[in-house]
Design brief:
116 residues; alpha+beta; two-stranded antiparallel ribbon; two-stranded antiparallel sheet; 33% strand; elongated; binds zinc ion
Length: 116
């Protein structure tokens, strides 16, 4: 396993930053950024393939349709859950003509219970 990746944005080398300048004398170039895989945070994230958010989004804008076609979603997925309905006391504000008054009422909310 190599300890680095090259940024996967095909246009990374066209972005004008000092960090991409390589070469000597009159033979300077802008080069694709090298990504060091020297920490777990980088290795376990999408940023092991892209040098920053800008390159990630340029890649997605360019190849998003191909990615969506490769990993197409033709129907929604579902996760079984248990839902508990809970009553709680909430407040609403009513305008009486010259002031707002705070009135309590019984409200309900749905709570998704842990499935694990
Ligand atoms: Zn890049």
């Amino acid at each position: 396993m190599s300890d680095y990746n090259w940024c996967h944005n095909p246009d990374c080398h066209k972005i004008e930053t000092q960090s991409r300048v390589r070469g000597t004398g009159d033979n300077k170039v802008l080069r694709t950024r090298k990504i060091a895989l020297n920490c777990e945070y980088i290795r376990d994230s999408i940023f092991s393939y892209f040098c920053n958010n800008s390159c990630l989004h340029q890649f997605l804008n360019k190849f998003g349709e191909e990615i969506a076609n490769t990993y197409s979603v033709k129907q929604p997925s579902e996760t079984p859950i248990k839902v508990k309905t809970e009553k709680y006391e909430s407040y609403r504000y009513r305008w009486s003509g010259n002031e707002h008054t705070r009135e309590p009422y019984q409200a309900t909310r749905k709570i998704i219970e842990n499935s694990s």
